[in-house]
Amino acid sequence: MDIAKIDWSSIPWHVVREGVERKSFSGEGATVCLHRLSPGNEQMPHSHPNEQIVYILSGEVDFHVGEDVHRLGTGQLIAIPPDVTHYAVVVGEEQSFNLDIFTPRRPEYD
To answer: What's the rounded Cα separation, in Å, for the pair 46 and 25?
Structure first.
């Protein structure tokens, strides 16, 4: 059996847009993605066919999901259903780090 093993520190940050960077890792059925969000990051409401589970590692964000806004801080999680428009706005002046799990996997992040 061939098992993938990786060290997060060896994965380079990919600039998504101003104020948003990511690094990701995929298995057969899911993708794990670390996002670094800066205050004032460019907002881009979007949706995708994947379920997305968001875990806030540090910082605070207002997560817009559909018509609702959820303030999330360190240690909090939210599940975003497939095909629902969403985006995050950093609260305060500190960067926020969130770990996302997407299922099914997102091959475009490989």
So the answer is: 21
